[in-house]
Amino acid sequence: MIVDTTVQPKNVTFPTDAKLLNRAREKLVRLAKHRGVALRQSYARVGKFALIQHQRYAHAKQFKRANRKLKTLRTYLGRVIRDIGRKIEGNSGLEAAFAKLLPLAWRVREQQRQRGPKVYSLHAPEVECIGKGKAHRLTSSASKSPLPPRSAARRVASSSPMCRRCPATPMTVTRWPP
Q: Whole-model pTM?
């Protein structure tokens, strides 16, 4: 794995599960509309409203209500994924068009808060978080090199240095600009 100790600025927003779920649904709906796939429902208005409600509840420290809205967003994304899967089944052209985004959206839907490798950005899924700060500060991230193939040893080395249970040695991170 190739990791530079200086962090190159990436166009990656602060990774919250609610924003990723809503963004994945929006991208799938936009691609389906562009390719002429008629969906039963796009959840455009209610999805946006559920995201706003989740952020309000989380800000007010009403986490049970926020988690309920997060579950609603996850449900909307799952319905869109399954609907698109049914509509494109058997059409090789449409399956090729959705080949990259559909599995990525499924990974976003299935990921938990702190378990396993996470997707932090839909347009750059190779980015891994080294150190996550506050929403208004710089976020440190590292891009994995596509070479060589991913192995168990590489998986251990690419895990976050902030994890105390990880046997790998911690990486030093220099934030740029200081």
A: 0.70
